[in-house]
Amino acid sequence: MQAAYNIYPIGIVHNKDDDVRIEIYPQYEQALLGIEQFSHILVLYWFDENDTPEGRSILQVHPCGNPKNPLTGVFATHSPRRPNLIALSKCRIVAIEGSSITVDRIDAYDGSPVIDIKSYFPDEENNSDYRFPEWDRNKKE
Fold it and tell me: Which residues of 83-110 are buried (b: 16+ CB within 10 A; e: fewer)?
């Protein structure tokens, strides 16, 4: 049985020149509490510019758009052509001001709808490139 799901944007990507920000809508600003404890976040957004029935029906692509690369299933690539147009980028937090998170970069177009943000926990705790709260180090297995 196939079910339909509704996804609602929680914000928008601003990506112009050196200004890369995730702007969270006011009704979701309280959900940012504690995000400053992290050095990185995972941003899930919608490939809205590729949202066509034709684009959603493409199941195989040549990776990186290069026809010299072998035909590959979209689930084995980062292609924006896929049945569900959910994208994911790991971003380093540069600054947080109110409901605006400035990040180092994101692989999203300006105006892309943000559908979720998740705090990023590195696989190895000894990696000094990441910052995360002490409470994660004390979690029970």
Answer: eebebebebbbeeeeebebbbeebbbee
